[in-house]
From TrEMBL:
Its main location: membrane. It comes from Enhygromyxa salina. The keyword Nucleotide-binding does not apply. Pfam families: Lip_A_acyltrans. This is Lipid A biosynthesis lauroyl acyltransferase. One of its GO terms (cellular component) is plasma membrane. Keywords: Acyltransferase, Cell inner membrane, Cell membrane, Membrane, Transferase. GO terms for biological process: glycolipid biosynthetic process. GO terms for molecular function: acyltransferase activity.
Length: 334
């Protein structure tokens, strides 16, 4: 059963956000698929909770080594994506680099259970720059946390919650209710985290985000994957053009609040380095060169992701061709 949840997590990482939305021809089909996925996710979560209660974190990690070895053998797309990533970033790759990469992802996924349950004493946290975020919140105004599928966003969230910093997670509708289900199931309904659903057909979610920011809360969003019909901008990432969503910067410009880049690097066996860096006190998007301004912010974010992912390539958790795009749209914007 633990194998099933680990495989599900890895398959999610092997698909860019929105891919599953595109597979559904209409809203009814999407809802039906999402309901099935949510039921399956809850079953997997319960299985994982049982395993962690019986084996604990150490036993769960030992079990993952066996599960991920077999997964690496049979999961061709994820293995090939990992090897391509290592070849690009490190200059070499093998079955074993892919195995360690996939194992690192599974270990971080397992840790989410303990982090959500508030069992922070199982981990060591190294805070770097997080006082900047606390200083900003002391003014009474909220802020946006911009992260990536790198390391553990959950570790940063758990540390913020432990410090009594109110945090909200902004996620696309294909993932929002699954995140909420995970937090609810693992915490026993005691999670203090609010999940705000991004609905491309209904922009009223922006009003809720504004309310949270006005009340001095944090809103966390990932800035490295595109959702269905997302606006995007092209930046250079590890020597090649890649698409990043424009949405976080447009939203920040409307809300007129600080934006912090956050990275939670996992260092086995139980250490998380939590970094917080200011992207902008306020995102400015002048009408005359709006797209260029968006691109500058996205490129700055990409450079910091590149910096940390280059130092810890096993913490990069996008197991698909991150650089794939239409053949006629290959150049970073200037």
């Amino acid at each position: 059963m633990t194998h099933g949840l680990a495989v599900t997590e890895l398959r999610e990482a092997a698909s860019p956000a929105g891919a599953l939305d595109r597979a559904s021809p209409n809203a009814e089909a999407t809802e039906a698929w999402l309901a099935r996925r949510e039921r399956g996710s809850r079953m997997g979560i319960r299985a994982l909770l049982l395993v962690t209660r019986v084996l604990g974190r150490r036993g769960g990690r030992a079990l993952l080594r066996v599960i991920i070895f077999y997964f690496t053998i049979f999961a061709g797309p994820a293995r090939r994506a990992s090897r391509a990533w290592y070849q690009r970033v490190v200059g070499r790759s093998s079955f074993w680099t892919a195995y360690r990469h996939l194992l690192r992802f599974a270990e971080v996924a397992l840790d989410r259970v303990f982090l959500v349950r508030g069992e922070l004493d199982q981990f060591e946290f190294d805070h770097q720059g997080t006082q900047l975020m606390r200083s900003a919140l002391a003014t009474g105004r909220g802020a946006i946390l911009l992260g990536a599928h790198f390391g553990s966003f959950e570790a940063m969230r758990a540390a913020a919650s432990d410090a009594q910093l109110p945090i909200n997670i902004l996620a696309h509708n294909a993932n929002a209710r699954l995140i909420a289900a995970f937090l609810d199931e693992v915490s026993g309904g005691r999670s203090r985290v609010r999940v705000i659903e991004i609905n491309p057909q209904d922009k009223t979610y922006i009003l809720e985000v504004k309310q949270r920011i006005d009340e001095g809360e944090l809103v966390a969003v990932l800035g490295d994957r595109l959702g269905l019909n997302d606006r995007s901008t092209i930046v250079e990432f590890f020597g090649a053009p890649a698409r990043l969503p424009s949405g976080p910067y447009i939203m920040a410009s409307v809300l007129r609040c600080p934006v912090f880049m956050v990275f939670g690097t996992f260092e086995p066996p139980a250490r998380y380095v939590l970094r917080c860096e200011l992207l902008a006190e306020q995102v400015e998007l002048p009408r005359a060169n709006r797209e260029q301004a968006i691109n500058r912010y996205a490129a700055q974010f990409a450079r910091r992701v590149e910096h940390y992912a280059g130092a810890a390539p096993d913490n990069w958790f996008n197991f698909y061709d991150f650089w794939k795009m239409p053949a006629d749209d290959q150049q970073p914007q200037q």
